[in-house]
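Notebook B, p. 112. Complex prediction, attempt 2.
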Amino acid sequence: MGRFITRRLLLLIPILFGVVTVTFIIMYVIPGDPVLSLVGERYDEETLERLRGELGLDRPLALRYIDYLGRVARFDRGRSFVTGRPVMETIRERVPRTLTLAGAAMLIAVGGGMAAGAVAGSGRIPWAGKSLMALTLVGVSIPVFWLGLLLIHLFAIRLEILPPSGYGGGSIRYLVLPALTLSFASMATVARVTRAGFLEAGSEDFVRTARAKGLGEGTVMGKHVFRNALIPVVTIVGTDFGSYLGGSVLTESIFGWPGLGRLIVQSILKRDFPVIQGSVLFMAILFVLVNLIVDISYGFIDPRIREGGGEE
Amino acid sequence: MIRHILSITASLISALLIVSCGGGEGPPALRLVLQTEPTNLDPASAVDYSSGWVSSLIHSNIVRFEPDGSIEPDLARSWTVSGDGLEYVFHITGGRFSDGGSVTAFDVESSLKRLIAPSTASPRWWVLEPVAGASDFHAGRAGGCSIEARDDSTLVIRLGNRAAHFLSLLAMPAAGIVSPDAADSLGRDYGRRPTGSGPWRLVSWKSGDEIVLERNMFSPEADSGVPRISIRLIPETMTRVAEFEVGNLDLLEIPPAELELWRSAGVRLLSKPELRIVYIGLNNEKPPFDDPRVRRALNMAIDVESVIGHILFGAAEKATGIVPAGLRGSPPPAPLYRYDPAGAVQLLEEAGYPDGFSMEIWQRENPESGRILESVQGFLARVGIDVKIVTREWSAFKQAVDRGTPDAFYLDWFADYPEAGNFLVPLFHSENRGGGGNRAGFADEAVDSILDIASGVSDPAARWEMYAEAEKRVMEAAPWIFLWFPVRYEVVSHRLEGYEIPVIFNGQRFTGVSLR
């Protein structure tokens, strides 16, 4: 296991090198000029040149690339072109908020999704199972912005029990609606996969054996069926969590949530290269780490994977 | 197991709901909202609307705009102007920075020179361009310029040429006075932690979330009105509307599409014509738009009034001139271009385009301009012009337009200060082609020379007459498709009193408002 983790961590280096290079190239290929966001509606060429010089944008591309690689290696992310703030300071401010939202959404997705999937998969309450599965179909197809506005309208304007938007200094009241919105699609997928897992495991030999040796239905379901259904769920959770870190832009915008997604979109619109580079790099690292954790957790859930790996 | 999961989920949900029932009430605050977050509160670096707006609440200027656009004393309690209009003597007294220090004429000198200094690299240094020696100082050819504090309370500024609008320039956000100590010690971080002598001081700035201001307790009028302002940062229109509906905001700008809804909702709705013109710029240097007949034909082909009625729900006034009504010395001119598709076709024939032509109109991403341009596209199709709408996000759009790439582009122009010259000079003087504001590339020697002379004329009536002449010539040459002057609508909460929509965006400092 130790060697496996080390190898995966070492793999981070080429991956990050690729991420850094690709973002660097894309930023210079797309049209738009960062200094134009700094000068407002009225400016002269001289001011543009001066600002380009100030930001080091007048140097040859190759030189800037090498310089940038050097700074990445020294963990120096530089300062934002637009705000002049150190990039790390900005990212550090945003990351906990994004993680809070992503974590809460994941919790709801896994809790709600597995409960619904288990109810549907066990076949104990047929009508509930059918309606839950119909609901998951709605869940995977509903657009996020529409769902978000619907929830705001229902919970904030009609029922007046939750605030429509904002971060609220970390208060859980402000977290509920964005987390619910963000979790909805994952919850539906988790429910469907859990149900499939339950149905599949229910007909396996080891379940029949467990039942034959006289185990109670609760133990059979909990210890054998549930554990088997968990593996695909973990896979979904891993990839979805990764995408939540940067892909929750819509949810963050609707709810005015000050996360990393909005920061990246804003900096792309303003061509704020240091912030784009810094946050994309940061997300790439997180994404790789989350996937590593997912891979490791397989071993704990299913002994067959652990033994089959034969690494230890 | 299922029961287990269900009970965990149920308890989680109930825990969330229990917590959600408790709501905290902060100290009384005026609750405002911004769509985009300020980038930098340093007056020298604040170029976007949000930054300039917040920066103006924190910094005071030598003189300031009132909500009606008039100029009032701010740090300068009085001033005199020499007979030749070149020397301004200001008596600076009574101002105090939010750290307690008094504002002296030396602080004002140092702050204004900081704006021009080459080391600051301010994109807004042009605000002080009329000052004698400013251009040389900015270019690094001189060590200073004609801004001089004679003693703690006397500041003398000498201009290179007469500039009738100089006081207006001094009231712009860029000419805000910064604490020299804070600016020196903080350097580039000043934009995040500003220290001004304005009515408000920055208490906290939670990126992407909220900015909180409190009264500058050292400011002269610190005891009156609202003690605190909270500015929420919410990018989504629908969410801002929801926040206003639940009573979390005191003030909200309403997009035209929402107007009917609010008119019937029984809320307090305020409106004010904006000092802003919306237009489609035509690339005057590129055929076929280098032919004035073609440009006139385009103006005749579009029923602007119908677009205002159907798409903007009446929230605009057709632009029969270039200078908005509020800045004119005479009533708006009679419309030069009326909706006349047959006349437009005839003009196009005369210009050598009997079968029309195809063109691109560029816009930046924005749902409202999309609807407007689709209707323009429909009108132009009727006279044989095939329009392709090209959408780019702001940065790419601006780059292309300033380089003269598109045939035409949909854009607007805000007044920086309430002066007719602030429309005509940047938009149509040939010196300002491209990034200077004249993005259509219009060039006319007669217009240039009228504008050059007018800006030095101190008698407002005489100056206006010259501007009106320049405006008439530009209208005849039709470098743009002239569209409209928008009207701004805001809804106000029932507890807010004494608020007025300002004519100039930094003309409302919220010192005269109160909460019931």
